Amino acid sequence: MGENKQNAIGYSLPPVWTKLKQHAVFPHFNHDERARYNFLTNLNRFLSAVIAPGVQTAYEQRVEPTFRAEHGRSFQNRHELRQAISRDAYYQLWAALRRCTMEMRQQNGRAVVLRQAEELAQRVEEILRGHEDILRLKPNFVVPAYLRHADNHLMPGSYHTEYFEGDVANAANYDSGLFVTSGGMLGSLTDGGGRAIAQWVRENYPDFKPKRILDVGCGLGHNTLPIAEAFPEAEVWAIDAGAPMLRYGAARAIALGIKNVRFVQMDAEDMSEFPDGYFDWVQTTMFLHETGGKAIHKIFKEIGRVLAPGGLTLHIEQPQYTPQMSYFEQFMRDWDAYYNAEPYWGHMHDLQPEDLMEEAGIPRANFMQVGVRAVNDLDKANGSQVREDYGRSPIWNVFGGWKPK
Amino acid sequence: MKLNDIVMASDKAKGARPYFFDDPMSERVLNIAMAVATEVAVIRERLDTIERLLEAKGVLRQSEIEDFVPNDEQAEERQLWHARYVGRILRIVKQELDAVANPEDNKPMHQIADEINEM
Questions:
Q1: Which of A223, A231, B31, B65 is the most exposed place for a label (fewest CB within 10 A)?
Q2: Taking residues A162-172, what's their average pLDDT?
Q3: B20 contacts in A (CB within 8 Å)?
Q4: Which of B27, B51, B68 is the last residue in one of the domains?
Q5: ipTM higher than the 0.85 cut
Q6: At what angle do helices A89-115 and A117-128 cross, to 10 degrees?
Q7: pLDDT tens digits, A281-326
Q8: Rounded CA gap, A89 and A96, in Å?
């Protein structure tokens, strides 16, 4: 079963985990570890395709009517709705299973990478030998407080924890396991977001020839590499706070033959080592909701500073919560904030992207916002069978704009 | 540096774990059951691999497995296995039955202790 094929019974199957590209730094999975991920991928697909829609049914048929009968009105915000739906037995079962799959995915992934952590670190070191110029880590680097304060999406140790000098275990876990929670919808290199944005920019601005590109909060560079590949003449800088991610990401880039990216450990709130106007394109991909309420404003100020006049900045995120979005949808999208350890998710999506862009020096007249869908080489129908799953589907909101010349 | 994956694999993420059921104990049991369900799927996939490899090597065909009908002796061995298996799974229910059926053997242990103290 290779693709998201709609079969005779009308149920869309996820691709098997072995469709992930096993590049040179990828952790080794034995037969049963692969089978475990196949089970979890299918469990997630079943939960989103079959079980999750029932939450809306339960909401419409009993949660909302019961609240209305008791209070003489409907919900006035998503928080009130959350309190009421938390007492619904069907919602409880779906939520408990969703939390359970997230924890199992982390547990299973950690079991794989921790047992081979030494070998992984050695392999990364060997691959990086002779390529030292593409990776720069800072011995006294201070990890931003917002990252240390939570383990985003229930990944123990988050992006920055090193279990020993040179460790890449958490990065290897992230790389090999995102397939499971996304149901394989991000493609064989888990880079559907980067591919989508690179394609969108090339199609819409065919004359745009950026000399320098910055990817802020690059993680292990999943979404940086497709941009670097699409603009091979550009010098691409990928910055992140997590040393294991950068180390693994640099080795992965070499393993995949991408040569125009350098990975640098940096706090996005202080990019002072870059001169003003240094970059023609500044990108973030699913990064902003993992920052903090004060940090995000400093980050946008810095993005505005390093962006060249006439340059482009784009930000891939989940949709912002607007008055037009129903409280039920806001609640479902907010679920990860509370229950999947994405604590800044809710607050971030209450911000107005036009305001954030103004902080980065993009006037409202230049503001743009579009929807993009992951470019997925494992899905020949290009996601046509994918249903919205409130923050899990590979369908994103992109906002940004051109800085005035 | 060797890491203790047996213990560290199950490290908890920061922040209190939410429980969605009214009784957290039910949710703990659900989580254990889902982990066991995973392992059943793993065994099933491994068996599938073995069958396909045996077929590829010409040892047997999967259709032979599908069409297999045990003879009387084999059937009895299998049924016996199933019966014992069900017995193991429903142990706690059977013991509830014993408690109802034989109340004289179902005294609280502190009472038994007191009684034995007098023996």
A1: B65
A2: 97
A3: 86, 91-93, 95-96, 99
A4: B68
A5: no
A6: 60
A7: 999 999 999 999 999 999 999 999 999 999 999 999 988 888 889 9
A8: 10
Rounded distance between C-alpha atoms, residue A96 and residue B19, angstroms = 7
B119: domain range?
69-119
In a domain, B75, yes or no: yes
DSSP secondary structure letter of residue B14: S
State the smallest CA–CA distance between residue B31 and chain A in angstroms: 6
Q: Is the pLDDT of residue A2 over 60?
A: no
In a domain, B94, yes or no: yes
The token duo for A285 is 């991909």
Identify whether B80 is part of a domain: yes
Q: How many domains does chain B have?
A: 2
Q: What is the pTM assigned to this prediction?
A: 0.90
Q: What pLDDT, in 10s, does the model give residues A102-156?
A: 999 999 999 999 999 999 999 999 999 999 999 999 999 999 999 999 999 999 9
Among the listed residues A306, A237, A312, the one whose alpha carbon sits nearest the alpha carbon of residue A277: A306
Task: Classify domain A1-405 at the CATH superfamily level.
Answer: Vaccinia Virus protein VP39 (3.40.50.150)
Whether A404 contacts A363, CB under 8 Å: yes
Residue partners of B19: CB distance under 8 A and separation at least 6 = A96, B27
User: B102 and B117 in one domain?
Assistant: yes
Domain identity same for B61 and B75: no
The answer to whether the CB atoms of A96 and B21 lie below 8 A apart is yes
Q: Where are the domains of chain A?
A: 1-405
Q: Are residues B58 and B85 in the same domain?
A: no
Whether the per-residue pLDDT at A220 is higher than 80: the answer is yes
Contact B42 A32 (CB under 8 A): yes
Q: Which residues of B touch A36 (CB under 8 A)?
A: 38, 41-42
Name the closest residue on chain A to residue B27, using Cα atoms. A96
Clarify whether residues B76 and B59 are in a common domain. no
pLDDT in tens, A142-164: 999 999 999 999 999 999 999 99
| B36 and B76 both lie in a single domain | no
CA distances from A130 to A124, A239, A249, A273 (A): 12, 21, 16, 24
**Do residues B41 and B61 share a domain?**
yes
Task: Give helix B24-56 / helix A89-115 axis angle, nearest 10°.
Answer: 50
B26 & B61 share domain: yes
Of residues A101, A108, A156, nearest to B12 (C-beta): A156
